[in-house]
Design brief:
The protein has about 220 residues and is α/β, with parallel strands linked by helices. It is built from eight helices and ten strands.
Length: about 220
């Protein structure tokens, strides 16, 4: 492909992502979320930082997306206390304590495994700490979601998680599940199965401020 054709192709995809992302933003707003679209992860980072008040504590559960946008370093530069259990220096007991701190932070900053065309957030957890923080809290929650996470409906969202999100996570964590060997879901009964707790947010939950930032780039699994 010539440079000219590649540039044209990239621009068409950018426009498609923008149209799709903004359409889902409107659906999210109908469901009580504060939602917006950005073309890039750099713009998404700027929007996240605007939402987080000075001095707020920030809890970040397991999320590739949040780390891809570079927010951890920026938050620390701005003097925020950040709780995240992916710190490899932590012991098992310290990681458990960190998970609890994530849940009660002023800001719960996360992504979503999938997001439907009509504005529903779908997530599956192994331990349930992440979906617990999504389902309830008197803090502020921010979702940052790559355009690759958007699916047609709940059924395709769940299938996306099982086939596209869980196998690479199992491989990354070196967990011996069937999907780590096949690269796709077998709906296994493995004692090490990662797909255990399913949460569907049909609306923004009552009693908290919920933000969703859709990014026109592929982010996370």
């Amino acid at each position: 492909m010539s440079e000219q054709n590649k540039s044209l192709f990239d621009e068409v995809i950018k426009q498609q992502n923008r149209v799709l992302g903004n359409a889902v933003v409107e659906e999210l707003k109908k469901k009580g979320f504060f939602a917006l679209y950005t073309d890039t992860k750099e713009e998404a980072l700027e929007e996240v930082l605007k939402i987080i008040p000075e001095g707020a504590t920030v809890g970040i559960p397991g999320s590739i997306t949040i780390r891809e946008i570079g927010v951890l370093d920026k938050l620390k530069e701005k003097g925020h206390t950040v709780f995240h259990h992916w710190d490899t220096s932590l012991s098992s007991e310290e990681k458990l304590k960190m998970r609890k701190e994530e849940l009660v932070s002023d800001i719960f900053l996360t992504s979503s495994n999938a997001l439907t065309f009509d504005g529903m957030l779908v997530n599956i957890d192994a331990s349930g700490n992440r979906v617990s923080g999504m389902a309830w809290g008197n803090n502020k929650i921010i979702f940052v979601v790559g355009i690759n996470k958007i699916t047609f409906n709940i059924e395709s969202a769940i299938q996306r998680i099982r086939d596209k999100a869980t196998p690479p996570n199992a491989i990354r964590l070196k967990i011996d599940t069937p999907c780590s060997h096949t690269g796709h879901c077998l709906n296994c009964d493995s004692p090490k199965r990662l797909c255990r707790a399913l949460l569907i947010l049909e609306r923004a939950t009552i009693g908290r401020e919920s933000h969703v930032i859709i990014v026109g780039q592929k982010l996370g699994y």
